[in-house]
Amino acid sequence: MSGRSNDKQSLSRYKEMFSDLVNEHYEMKFDKLLPTHNGGSESEGHDLAKVISDYPEKGVLSSIMPSLETKLDNTAFLVAFITSAHDYSLSGKFDKEEADAVLKALFSKVVASFNIESVTSSHHTRGLYGGTSGYDGPSNNLRISPSLVVKLIQFADATGNDSTKLINTLTEYTLDVKEGTEESTFHDFLFPVANGICAHIDTTERSSTGSERRFMKHMLAKYVRDYVKKAPPSPPPDWKKKTTIRCICLNCASLRDFIDDPSSTTKDFALGEKRRNHLDQQIDKTFFTTTIVRANPHKLRVEKTQALLVSDFKAWVARVQIANSVLDQLSQKGYLEDMLGNQYHSILSHQNLVLPDDLPALPAPPGLRNMVQRTVPAKRPFGQ
Q1: Cα(288)–Cα(305) distance, rounded to whole angstroms?
Q2: N or C: which end of the chain has fewer CB within 10 A?
Q3: Least confident residue range of 117-126, 170-179, 230-239, 315-324
C-alpha cells in the first residue's frame, strides 16, 4: 500500500509541475493535455506525445522537459515519448527545430540511465527446453519492448545522435544474462533487437558500428554457449524404443509428459490397482524404477534412472533445433556476416549446434514456428 501511495504522491507532484508550466505559458488546463496516466508505461509515452501534439504551439516541448527529466527511471515511457514526438515533428505537429533540440537533450539523458528491466522478480519457471519461459504467479518484472529499442536506434540515426551508450548497455545486459532466464531473454528480447538492428542497417544501407558488431558477437556467442549448451552424455542406443509410450490413454499421456519433462525426475500417479498395473506395464525398468506408495488411493511412483539421460538429451536436441532455426533466420540478413567477421562461421557452425548423425527421428519441438516468430520485432504503425 505504501508503494502505491508514493506513486500517487509522485504523480500528483508531476501533474502539478506540468500544469503550472502549461498554465504559465499557454493558459491551458493540464487535464486537457494529459488525461489520467501514471507516467510509466510505453503506451502512456506514446499517448502523452499524441495528446501534446494537439497543442503544437512553439515552446510546449521545452516547457515539459523539466517534468520529463524527473521520470528517467521510466525508460520505456520516455523512449516511447521521444520516438512518437519525433514522428509528430516530422509530420509538422511540432516545431522541428525545437523538437530536435529537446529530444536530443532528452535522448542523451535517457541513454545514460537506460533500464532494460525496470523491476526484477526471482520467481521464474523452467521452460520446455531446459531454459526459462517466464515467471510464475504475479510479477512486476517489466522489460522494455525490443521494437521500442530498435525504434530508438532508428531515431538516433535519423537525428544524428550517438547510440553507442545504448548499444553498450545491450551488450552488458547480454553478458549478464542469468542462468535459468536465457530462453525468455534471448527469444523475447535480444534476438528481436538483433533482427531489428540488421533490418535497419539493411534498409539504410549504412555500415554497422563497432558497438553493434561487439553486441552481435557477444550475444550470439553467449546464446550458443549458455542457452544451447554442450551436448549432454548420450543415452543408450535403444533409448527411443524403451522410453516411447505408445498407448494413447489419458494416464499414459500423463506418463509421456513426465518422461519428456527435463525438470521432472519423479512423479506419483494416484490410480486404482488396474490402472496402476497398466501404467507399470508400459515402463521399461532399465530406464525407470517403480514403487507403490501406500495411500488412499495407492500411488505408483515412477522415478527416472537411465531415463534422466534421455530427458536431458531430448531437451538439448530441442534447443539445438530451435537455435538453428533462429540463427538461420538471422543469417538471412545480408549484414550479419559482415558484422561477425571472422567469427561468423565459428558461431553459426559451433559444435554445440551439431546434432549427432545417428539421431533417431524426433518430432519438431512444440511451438517451433511461434518460437522463431517471437524473435522478430513487432512493427508499430505510425501514431500508435
Answers
A1: 5
A2: N
A3: 117-126
Tell whether the torsion through CA atoms of 196, 197, 200 and 202 is positive or negative. negative
Q: Determine the Cα angle at 191 with ends 114 and 343, to 5°.
A: 105
Dihedral angle of Cα 258, 264, 266, 270, to the nearest 10 degrees: -50
Which residue's C-alpha cell is 534498409? 203
Q: Is 331 within 8 Å of 341 (Cβ atoms)?
A: no
CB atoms closer than 10 angstroms to residue 124: 20
Query: pLDDT tens digits, residue range 326-358?
Result: 999 898 877 888 899 999 999 999 999 999 887
Residues whose CB falls within 8 Å of the CB of residue 134, separated by 6 or more in sequence, listed in order: 124, 125, 184
Strand, coil or helix: what is 302? strand
Asked if 213 and 194 count as a contact pair (C-beta separation under 8 A), the reply is no
Please check the confidence at residue 113 and state whether its pLDDT lies above 90: yes
pLDDT value of position 52: 83
Q: What is the mean pLDDT of residues 56-85?
A: 87
- The mean-pLDDT minimum among 9-18, 262-271, 370-379 falls in 9-18
8 Å CB contact between 86 and 159: yes
Collect all residues with Cβ–Cβ distance below 8 Å to 139 and sequence separation of at least 6.
121, 123
Distances (CA, A) of 115 to 13, 76, 118, 155, 225: 23, 8, 6, 18, 25
Domain boundaries, given as residue ranges, for the chain: 24-117, 162-227+309-357, 250-304
3-state secondary structure 117-154: ECCCCCCEEECCCCCEEEECCCCCCCECCHHHHHHHHH
Has this prediction a pTM greater than 0.85?
A: no
Task: At 41, list the grid cell.
Answer: 508505461
Within 10 angstroms of residue 139's Cβ, the number of other Cβ atoms is 14
Residue 49 CA, distance from chain mean position: 26
210: its cell numbers? 563497432
**Spatial distance between the Cα atoms of 51 and 34, rounded to a whole number of angstroms:** 7
Would you say 64 and 105 are in contact if contact means Cβ atoms under 8 Å apart? no
Residues present in the chain in total: 384
Q: To which H or E segment does residue 96 belong?
A: helix 96-112
Angle at 13 between CA 11 and CA 7, to 5 degrees: 30
